[in-house]
Amino acid sequence: MTDRARLLLVGAGPRAIMLLERLLARTDEHTLLDIDLVDPHPPGAGRIWRRAQSPLLKLNSMTRDVTVFTDDSCTIDGPVRPGPSLNQWLELWRVGELPDVDLDELSEAEARALGPDGFPTRRLHSHYLDWFFRTTAASAPAGVTIRQHADTVAAVRPTADGRHLVVLATGSEIVTDAVAYCLGHTERDLDPATAALAEASARHGLVYVPPAFTADADLSVIPEGADVIVRGMGLAAVDLVVLLTQGRGGRFDRAGDGGLRYLASGREPRLHLGSRRGVPYRSKVTSTLQGDPPQREVLTPDAVAALAASGHPIDFERDVWPLVATELLHGHYRELFTGHPDRVSTTWTEFRPVLRAHPWDSSALREAIAAAVPEPLDRFDVAAFDRPLAGARFLDEEDVQRQVRAHIADDLLLRTTEERSPAQGVFIAALLSFMALSEIPKERWNARSRAHSLPVRWHTFFSYLASGPPPHRLEELLALSDAGVVRFLGPDIEVTVTANGFATSSPRVPGKTVAGALVDAWLPAADAALSTNEALRELVTVHGSELRVTDAEYDGSLGRVRVSDDGQVLRRDDTAHDTLFATGPFTSLTEAGAFTRPNADSLSLRQTDRVAGAIASRLGVAVPVTP
Predict the structure, then answer these.
(1) pTM exceeds 0.85
(2) Strand-strand pairing, 517-520 and 207-209
(3) In this predicted model, what pLDDT tens digit does every residue of 249-299 receive, in sequence order?
(4) Which domains, ranges and CATH numbers included, belong to the chain?
């Protein structure tokens, strides 16, 4: 390069700083580049992982399962630059090898006690991300400058010379050669149904909290001792329960018999939890594999290539879900037969063909499994796992409590004890399936799969299976149920607004629950077209185009920014901006999260590296030749 280039990153959270690292990995001593990061929140942690939030809120990943660095497993074009996982970083800090890390008092106490299988707080994780940002920035060669602006991008306007004028909320302006949007989840306008619910709630003087990032939701509107309906039983609901119980002064105590009990403060509301399934997300798996290494048995590269090459659009439910379900069965039974051979009546070599010989949901397969696996808890039924209360009938509300509590207790047993390690086999099979589906070109799916089956049906199932809460959160839920602070409503709940309150019922539970407050406990769906972030909305409405899928059976817009595989923003005429890039949940790329597990050849790192490569190519950044 003979002239300095300039790049501006919209956002400075994990996605942005991981992109920054991948870009700097391609620089050398000849690179002349200015990089601006714009975010009102601290660089590294960004909004979601910022330090300024309740110390009660945690990651749902163990410290050993968190990294922001590439490693030798990564199939990427850019150079691999390994670094410590969160657990390794904590070990370095404990022996004094990170003198530039200054932990606050709470985080320091946590860091001294937290082991590799522990679940860190978001506050502690913010220190790791801050260190990663500072270390990455310090690695820049002399010709690269990095500036951080505690501000918000308000607009991006093209200039006469082909560059971009970026206007910040404070009125400052930056002229840059390229812009990369690296935002995570943002707030959004209410959809019509939610807006109508909010209006009806206000009309009747009721309290309604719409979907939001739980740490930022205004929970002060929920009175002490009030009955509260909570729709949703995923991670957002778990955070909500934490903030409205421990966050209001309650605490947990381990009794002499080892059981957990909740000691109320008296400031808690009474929380009535319900959802489509009627049970919480499955506990995070903490067991370790005992048997043969996992592998893709069904969704192999050849099988994925055959799907992509088929002569018809791929339908998730028809063409792919049976393969995913069978892959999960292989993951479970491979681990059971090879890791716990004393609990089965035959060998994996003999049983493996049985899984291929029958459809995943057939009675013949269930009979074959029962013959080879004597103990019912060792058997895995995909449909029952997905909807554990599907066949349940409840005598009364107390029967709901008994059945949901029994389900949670069984789930903790199956997901956290070494003798039940087949759950880890299912978890890894799900990860491998997720990676396999990402290899199918987006345009090969039919419209309904792209609009609903993949982002809703598959993503929700995957989160339910693989991205649930830490086990101790479910144990706490049982203790809160014992204390009468939490009640379970059952599956398929319906809510209506009346003058007396929110009336909630389940078609399989007698009676109704009426409460004066309702919380919809889930994160708003990523939708650039409805985002309250001005830059993001401008990107999809002015500079780029909204993802729309259509065929003979489905036609609709998805609210996401269309981008190429390397993150270039696509105009309405399908041409690509060569100086506007985007990555994250608001784009048409497969959502892969930000940070990831070590040694997993993660999709997030592969995506980030591709986008960094495209930006480096556009700006003329030198790419060192690596072995």
Answers:
(1) yes
(2) parallel
(3) 999 999 878 899 999 999 999 999 999 999 999 999 999 999 999 999 999
(4) 5-54+131-187+527-619 (3.50.50.60), 192-281+481-520 (3.50.50), 301-466 (no CATH)
